[in-house]
Amino acid sequence: RYDIQTGKLVNDDLGVAYSVLHGVPQLVPLLGEVLPQLEAAAPPEQGQSEHHVIDKTRTRHT
Q1: Residue 36 has what DSSP assignment?
Q2: CB 1 within 8 Å of CB 15
Q3: Is 49 helix (H, G, I), strand (E, B) or coil?
Q4: What residues does each domain of the chain span?
Q5: Which of 11, 30, 34, 41 is the most exposed place for a label (fewest CB within 10 A)?
Q6: What is the pLDDT of residue 48?
Q7: Biased-composition ranges for Basic and acidic residues (predicted)?
Q8: CA 31 to chain CA mean position, Å
């Protein structure tokens, strides 16, 4: 979704916002802004269950 107040493209599923420059979203992962947990948490859409929410506190092990 596009957030008019911040001028950013927001991915609620990932909890990340991307800047938009001259109408083009800057979707480079390093440029994404991780949103605070409360702002990123949206109520599940109809037909979705709570397990679709991503736990950003988990870390990826390589």
Answers
A1: P
A2: no
A3: coil
A4: 2-52
A5: 30
A6: 47
A7: 48-62
A8: 12
Contact 7, 26 (CB under 8 A): no
pLDDT of amino acid 33: 96
Q: What pLDDT is stored for residue 43 in this prediction?
A: 57
- State residue 37's pLDDT score: 74
Domain 2-52 architecture = Single Sheet (2.20)
**CA 30, CA 15: separation in Å to the nearest integer?**
14
Contact 9, 17 (CB under 8 A): yes
C-alpha torsion sign, points 55, 38, 34, 42:
positive
Q: Give 10-residue mean pLDDT values along the chain (62 residues).
A: 96 95 94 78 53 48 50
Distance CA 32, CA 20 (A): 11
